Amino acid sequence: MLRRIQGNRLKANSGAGYILPQTQALVARFTTPPSLARMILINNLIGALITAGVWAKLDTLYLFAAADSQAARQNWIQNLYNCTAVSSPTFTTDRGYAGDGAASHVDSGFNPSTASTPKFARNSAYFGFWSRTSGTQTVSAAGAFVADGITRLTRNTSNDSSGRINQSAALASVGSVVTDGSGLFGIARSGASVNRLSRNGANLTTGTDASTALVNATIKFGTINGVSFSAVQFAAGMFGENLSVAEETSAYTAVLAYLTAVGAA
Fold first, then answer.
1. pLDDT at 256 over 60
2. How many domains does the chain have?
């Protein structure tokens, strides 16, 4: 049954304020039921993404900044590709997961090459994650990579940001200085030779890198290939089909509101 939020209670009713069926399905998978305040935050985020047309384009959405580690690993979009913590990454309540730079990471279990009817496609794809680590990095903090694939480096020692999305060579933000490695770092592909880098919903650069075949590896946070590792702390992550700049901006705004409310942003 749909339930309405009114004051500090949930009431069965009609009209604005409903606990969405998507929210109900998600929180039913939480081992520990969320508080009413948390459920409202979740519901508001889901509602904003549905309204913006983003929800329908995603294969996954992770809010690692959760009340507990079990909730943090759940895929909000569907009961598939719930994350696995590998080699004990550090979980901090309402902040997220962080790797150790040596072995620990979080694995989505989503392999673009083998997933059943994925929205993430060779020439229409989006990958983004929310970093809470402002400093520079020497390796890409998340993605999937074999000979080519999906990578995202937030900020290097030259204050450049870079990444790959179904391509062999990295697209770099040379000329668009990034002095803060925290925030939502995205990379999108809207065609066979059209890609772009972004931070907090704003474009850093666009490119014409040719697409390559989908990588045959799972998308991970804290490592891209199980060889190089990052110690970045992740508050959120998402991927699916291409998001326009407007859609990504809406996603950023919605996720920011949730993270601000729990103290992660």
1. yes
2. 1
Q: What are phi and psi of 172, to 5 degrees?
A: -115, 155
Angle at 219 between CA 38 and CA 71, to 5 degrees: 20
The 10s digit of each residue's pLDDT in 208-224 is: 999 999 999 999 999 99
Residues 184 and 252: beta-carbon distance below 8 Å: yes
Are the C-beta atoms of residues 83 and 75 closer than 8 Å to each other? yes
Residue 4: band (very low, low, confident or very high) from pLDDT cuts 50, 70, 90: low
DSSP for 164-218?
A: EEEESSPEE-TTS------EEEEEEEEETTEEEEEETTEEEEEE-PPP-PPPSS-
Note down the domain range covering 69: 59-248
Tally Cβ neighbours within 10 Å of residue 114: 11
Give SS3 for 106. strand
For residue 221, which amino acid is it? Answer: F
- Is position 150 within any domain? yes
Note whether 189 and 234 are within 8 A (CB).
no
Report in angstroms the alpha-carbon separations of 190 from 3, 53, 245. 38, 16, 11
> Residue 107 belongs to a domain with what CATH number?
2.60.120.200
DSSP assignment string, 114-145: TSSS-S-BTTBEEEEEEE---S--SS--EEEE
Q: Are strands 9-11 and 3-6 parallel, antiparallel or unpaired?
A: antiparallel
Within-domain flag for 46: no
What backbone torsions phi and psi does residue 143 show, to the nearest 5 degrees? 135, -155
Q: Is residue 38 part of a domain?
A: no
Is residue 217 a part of any domain in this protein? Answer: yes
